[in-house]
Design brief:
Structural class: alpha/beta
CATH architecture: 4-Layer Sandwich
Shape: globular
Distance between the termini: 35 Å
Strand order of the largest sheet: 1-2-3-4-5-6-9
Number of strands: 14
Number of domains: 1
Helix content: 25-40%
Strand content: 15-25%
Order of helices and strands: HEEEEHEHHEHEEEEEEEHEHHH
Length: 298
Amino acid sequence: MRLAFLVSFAALTAAPAAAQDFSKVEIKVEKLAPGVAVLFGAGGNIGLSYGEDGNVVIDDQFAPLTDRILAAIKTVDADPVRFVINTHWHGDHTGGNANLGRAGAVILAQDNVRTRLMSDQVVRGDKVAASPKEALPVITYSDGVTVHLNGDDLKVVHVAHAHTDGDSLIRWTKADVLHMGDAFFNKISFPFIDLDSGGSIDGAIAAANKGLDLAGTTTIIVPGHGPIATRAELAAYREMLVDIRTKVAAGIQAGRSLAEIQASKPAAPYGMPDGFIKPDGFVETVYNSLKNPPKDAH
């Protein structure tokens, strides 16, 4: 799991996916509830709705993995993928869009996902080229949409300025499963909040709160990266975000520099020194987010 996470972010922030070595990546399927499964590989965790109406996937990782992803889906349901719902625009979640779009899948996402995929972007200082037409969502929404398939209602909810400005949470109403996308990084690293794509610490906290509102005590939660989680683990993640934000905000209020705040180690109690986002790196993100919040955040 940790290797897949590091590979996914290396591919997202460095060379194009085609230049990465995905030859050893295995796609593993875990059934979560009747008609619902998750696929782990190299990239964001893929949600799967399957049944009499065909397959719906939540995110699709990288283009070189599409054939393996489809083969893994066929071990659960032989039908083709009818719909793709993107939780946000990053390449480790949308890299397979073009392949699935050409094969006839209908792609859905929040308005800002299409906007960002249509033009060149910058992630952690690296340029990410615009996506081809086939990769673009053909149905977009502002606040949310509900997909009625496979005997369930998939409620898709936009959370603003969280990991990016186009994040969505997806909840299977009957199966009681919640896919958080990258609004939730579970145990494997401090979260990556993409400030260049409209993300913010306050939006990340609000997204975690929304996830807690949507989840019950027995809800199965799929993070964007990391193992399957419980509501209690999501609540702990939210408390971590709040605690670090509070400490950084207090440092800013006291006139301390970023280096001085980092020296106080506000993220140290939460471990994960070897994650993709290091403790000091996350503190820097929180600091920059508070100093320069998104202009239209509210």
